[in-house]
Request: fold
Amino acid sequence: MIGKKSCQFFIAFLAAVLLSVFFGAASAFAAAPAVQVDSGDTTWLLVATAIVIFMHVPGLALFYGGLVSDRNVVSTMMHSFVSLLVVTIVWVLWGYTLAFGTDIGGFIGGFDYLGFQGVGPEAAFGTYTIPHYIFAMFQCAFAAITVAIISGGIAGRISFPAWILFSAVWVTVIYAPMAHWVWGGGWLAQLGELDFAGGTVVHILSGVSALTAAIVIGPRFEHLKKSHSPHNIVLFLIGAATLWFGWFGFNAGSALGANGLTALVFANTQIAAAAGGLGWLFVEWSIRRRPTLVGTATGAIAGLVGITPAAGFVTVPAALIIGLIAAPVSYFGIHFVKSRFKYDDTLDAFGVHGIAGIWGALATGLFATTAVNEAGKNGLFYGNPELLMHQAIGVGTALVLGCAGTFLILKGIGLFMPLRVSREEEEMGLDISFHEEPAYSPSNAEPLSMTDSIQKEAPLNASLKTDPPGPIV
Reply:
């Protein structure tokens, strides 16, 4: 029954896409350029957008895929992959206009860009020196990876149909309004909150949403019965390195041009990541008496999260301090808060993105200075305590919106379909029980051709029980 409804929905959805693209394209090219597009700025934003997408897939997919058990690798990677597909379509149809359309009362964008109407090759909003197309797609890449981060909190147990629907609804009613409030001229922007590249909009919002989803859906059945360790640290490290690389597009791309500020952001990003990695290494070494690769790489990611809201507003020494503190803050959040309350945030999405994001947003209120960016503000350490208050309001807003919104979305979806898989499916692993596609072929399994995999002439898990193949003649 669900399959039939899904098919009907997809057909209607596809028709809407084609109509909106046709009419949107017609109106986009009708507009005359307001200011001159700069080729250097445009080239950098094209590269930065591609880097952020690469950061998402394969970066985040590999990062999460290496951390889960070998029974849920494909499933976990599919969550990242399908969120990119779903969010891109939603963004084009209505997400972008809700986030960046003409401000309505400080709370939401208007329908100026519905179906990408009015989005074209001219300079974005008549003020930026990059085409509107690339600005919109750069923001699309941000929206997509924000949704994917949430999957880390519920890996190994959420129903795949529920995840697809959740991705579409969440980016519409949670991400788009928050992006508008901070970056689209909404009430937080009017208040004066600073978020250079997504501390509140991306990391706090996704982190607290992941925590809420983990609590609503419930823990894994084996959560407290056995310890969980990464199944493939090499895969994880490749993913972590890809994320680190992608963060240069994420942060430096948010300067929306190729200039001196871009260079500062690039430097701050690298320095905070290095400080975060060392911070985690030394804390873990002193407490557990041994440093780990997973921990050190996680610390670097925490440092990157911490610098994200501040990257274009603080000096290099401040970036070092922010990254250095972000790692131990996340470490204690994961190892003590999580242990105390026993919630099952599978891959510590809240511990890394939520907690380090909160620190980074508040640190912006401490270290920001107009000496590095006249478009910013001075923080507490430069004589302006008001900014710290505005940052705290932004943090609280992201926490409340992410928590309440995610709770309501999941409860609503739960009225129409199961939110999580059955115990049997979870214990078997979602790679086999749902996708019928193991990440690693057993040594005694017959190799499958691409045609065999697509047509599924026989259940894939049945091949796992076959006798070893005979000698090749």
Q: What stands out?
A: Residues 36-423 form a domain with the Ammonium transporter fold fold (CATH 1.10.3430.10). The CA atoms of residues 16 and 93 lie 8 Å apart.
